[in-house]
Amino acid sequence: MQSFKKKFRSIKKLPTWIFFILAVFLKCMARCLFRIKIEDPNNYIPADENFVVVIWHNRLLFMPAIFPKKARVRTKAVISASRDGQYIADIVHQFGLQTVRGSSSREGAKAQRGALKAIEENWHVVFTPDGPRGPKYHMHPGPIHLASNTNRRITPVMINASRYWQLKSWDGFQIPKPFSKLTLVIGDAISIPQGISGKAELEKWRKITEEKLLAITKD
To answer: Residue 51: how many CB atoms within 10 A of its CB?
Structure first.
């Protein structure tokens, strides 16, 4: 058993058909087993404006399946350069999302360059600002840097499940229970001042954005 685990962990990329099946499974679950509600009071989803998007790490499971296609095909997600990140990237590609590889703990400079290019090319760029290692619900400053350097607004996004199982992982990853309600919440966009450089100013806007994201988070 131990040798099997070791062998599996050494595989960096699994066959594409596996992720195709997983994506079909998630799509079917989203359509058949959940009540989906979208709250977008500012009509950001159909807007031409592109955003820096933030969502907590533990709410990702059904995000690709329930996010409207018109937004998905304009989106690049910043995903860890690790092996596990490769699995996630392979899944989200099945939903039409593109990816930027890297994180705050691995190849962070490469991720920021890729995110900067994506924003300039009019893509939405999605961060899990407490990932990949936490702490849970603590926002790292990467999205603030990007928004400040590109004059784009940050939009907090959340998926709240009315009932769910919670894993014993660092982020308390949530698995919605069948027949629960999934609410996709698009919060008010936050305008970040251009050219932030000082630590105090960066921390101020990091905290403001974290509080806005927490305000639409329901546990």
So the answer is: 25
Q: Give residue-wise pLDDT tens across range 72-130.
A: 999 999 998 887 788 889 999 999 999 998 765 555 677 888 999 999 999 999 999 99
Give the N- to C-terminal CA distance of the chain in Å, as an integer.
Answer: 36
Structure-block tokens of residue 69: 């296609």
Distance CA 138, CA 143 (A): 13
Cβ 144 vs Cβ 154: under 8 Å: yes
C-alpha–C-alpha distance, residues 86 and 213, integer Å: 26
Provide the residue type at 107 as one letter. E
Is 124 part of a structural domain of the chain?
yes
- Number of CB atoms found within 10 A of residue 191's CB: 11
| Residue 209 included in any domain | yes
Task: Please answer whether residues 217 and 56 qualify as being in contact, where contact means their C-beta atoms are separated by less than 8 angstroms.
Answer: yes
Domain count, the chain: 1
Domain hosting residue 78, numbered range: 35-215
- As a whole number of angstroms, the distance between CA 214 and CA 219 comes to 10
Residue 19 resides in a domain: no
